[in-house]
């Protein structure tokens, strides 16, 4: 077994091996041994060196944290979209002559709280009921002319094209007033 050469410290603070058995200079110590010796010399205050892969992982982690932190900060401090509020005054009603003097202007749908009498309403008014189009309105008028006035709204199921489901949607908007 060959005795180990004594360790000595150079002026730069590096640990080197001394002369070998035959007076030749022995190579420097292994990097692991050098790091351990440096850490021991520093009294554990200095962290041992890290590999370049560890440096790359730490760098990527730091970059990721900076990026996500900046992204969240930018989203919180971003300007909110503009809100534009527009108001329009009601146009002045001027008495304009009607296109045809006998025809009144009718709304396309029911007014709030309005109930239509199915015994006296023309087909145009019946079309304003939910689920009733032009053909069904004509069918209601034809049934009314053939069989007389409806005694109740429930008799609408006798009209072609009106079933229980449609009738359930009509009950709040239709009434069968007795004809005088």
Automatic annotation (TrEMBL):
Q: Which domain of life, per UniProt?
A: Bacteria
Q: What NCBIfam families does the record point to?
A: competence protein ComEA helix-hairpin-helix repeat region
> Compositionally biased, Low complexity: which spans?
89-101
InterPro entries named among the record's database cross-references:
Competence_ComEA_HhH, Endo/Exo/Phosphatase_dom_1, Hlx-hairpin-Hlx_DNA-bd_motif, RuvA_2-like
Ranges where the record places region Disordered: 1-21, 83-113
Q: Which GO terms describe its biological process?
A: DNA repair; protein secretion by the type II secretion system
Q: Which GO terms describe its cellular component?
A: type II protein secretion system complex
Gene Ontology MF terms in the entry:
DNA binding
Protein name per Swiss-Prot or TrEMBL:
Helix-hairpin-helix domain-containing protein
| Pfam families registered for this protein in UniProt | HHH_3
User: Helix-hairpin-helix DNA-binding motif class domain: which residues?
Assistant: 124-143, 154-173
């Amino acid at each position: 077994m060959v005795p180990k050469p004594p360790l000595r410290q150079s002026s730069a603070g590096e640990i080197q091996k001394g002369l070998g058995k035959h007076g030749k200079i022995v190579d420097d110590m292994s990097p692991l041994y050098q790091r351990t010796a440096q850490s021991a010399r520093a009294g554990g205050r200095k962290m041992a060196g890290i590999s370049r892969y560890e440096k790359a992982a730490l760098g990527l982690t730091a970059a990721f944290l900076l990026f996500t932190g900046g992204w969240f900060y930018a989203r919180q401090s971003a300007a909110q979209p503009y809100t534009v509020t527009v108001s329009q005054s009601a146009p002045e009603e001027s008495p304009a002559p009607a296109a045809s003097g006998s025809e009144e202007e009718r709304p396309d749908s029911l007014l709030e709280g309005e109930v239509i009498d199915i015994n006296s309403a023309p087909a145009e008014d019946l079309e304003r009921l939910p689920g009733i189009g032009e053909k069904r309105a004509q069918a209601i008028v034809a049934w009314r002319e053939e069989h007389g006035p409806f005694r109740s709204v429930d008799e609408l199921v006798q009209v072609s094209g009106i079933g229980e489901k449609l009738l359930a949607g009509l009950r709040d908007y239709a009434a069968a007033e007795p004809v005088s």
